[in-house]
Amino acid sequence: MSEAATDRQPLLGYHHLRYHVGNAKQAAHYYRTAFGFTPIACSGPETGNRESSSWVMAQGDVRLVLTAGLLPGHRVTDQHHRHGDGVRDISFAVPDVDAAFAYALAGGAKPVTEPYEIGDDRGTARMATVASYGDTVHTFVDASGCTGPFLPGFRAVGDTGKPDGLRPLWTVPPGRSIGITGIDHIVCNVPLHEMDVWTEFYQRVLGLTQLVHYDDESVGPQYTSMMSKVVWDGTGKIKLNVNEPAQGKSLSQIQEYLNYYGTSGVQHIAFATDDIATTVTRMREGGVRFMRVPDTYYDEVRERADVDALGLDLTALAELDVLFDQDEDGHLLQLFTEPAQDRPTLFYEIIERHGTRGFGITNFKALFQAIEREQAARGNL
Ligand SMILES: [Fe+2]
What we know:
The longest helix is centred in the last third of the chain and has 14 residues. A hairpin with a 6-residue loop joins β12 and β13. By secondary structure, the chain is α+β, with helices and mostly antiparallel strands. The strands form two sheets. Strands 6-7-8-5-1-4-3-2-9 form a nine-stranded mixed beta sheet. The chain is globular and about 60 Å long. It contains ten helices and 17 strands. The termini are far apart. The site of fe (ii) ion has 6 residues, from β10 and β14.
């Protein structure tokens, strides 16, 4: 079933995530020093783009494009004004942009940009964009004809763009990798009663199938209540989770997100690592703050799992606030950062998987207890 679905809308993987930020130059510095990304390409007035400035950040299979508007009233500037820093575009690499776009429209997606070609002296790329939840979009990309550092129009960091050896426009040291290998999953928040709308959208538009459904019984701490569904491509390359608030006792953290972002949007991105202790230690050294986990959580872990048999040093994991979960397929280690900007919107997860396809469901209670403490500290509970 899922294989047939993938055949209908063959997604090769994520191509990039485009963020709209207030200051791309400073955001690039943050993702380099705190997350270990290396700036590989830039676009801006120096490359003939007079309306926005973009930095492309790379680590493992991940490409983040940090884009800031340069002019008042520009679309990027306006969207940033409404939402703050956040993810604008979850972009997919596809073998045939026109076919992907046609399939998406047939599934009910609204067109944003019809298929078009861009090119420069390093080749061409074909792209098309459809609307998704809130102000989020999905761009289908075929960059197989492009030999440049990213897409046409971008120049490599350190490249003068001139044959006469002028000083490069952008000279930025590479990041020190923290071991991020790829994107494990991407989670969005949508309003009450819209979870099914958007998971069905993904099934029709991206050919994904449902992997798992968490109802509010399984995710029900005291104040925060939510429901979540996950759709995937059948291989694990693409996993998209959709959260909606349930009728909680107080302000759901999903609703808090919607209030501050102004609409539906990306809540967190889970980066995969093979060595969570090193990844998290380096992020902490870079100044990233993580959600604190109640001490009693680790007593519960010792009761429900034979961590010694798995070769896990629980004391070391507890010092890093790393969470543990296990099912019949294996186990995982994960933890969550605080929001990456002033608004309580986008945050990150770091995840190390050993067999399981789960998302840490038994950690949800511990996690949300931690989230609710943060929410109370902001006066939103
Ligand atoms: Fe997650």
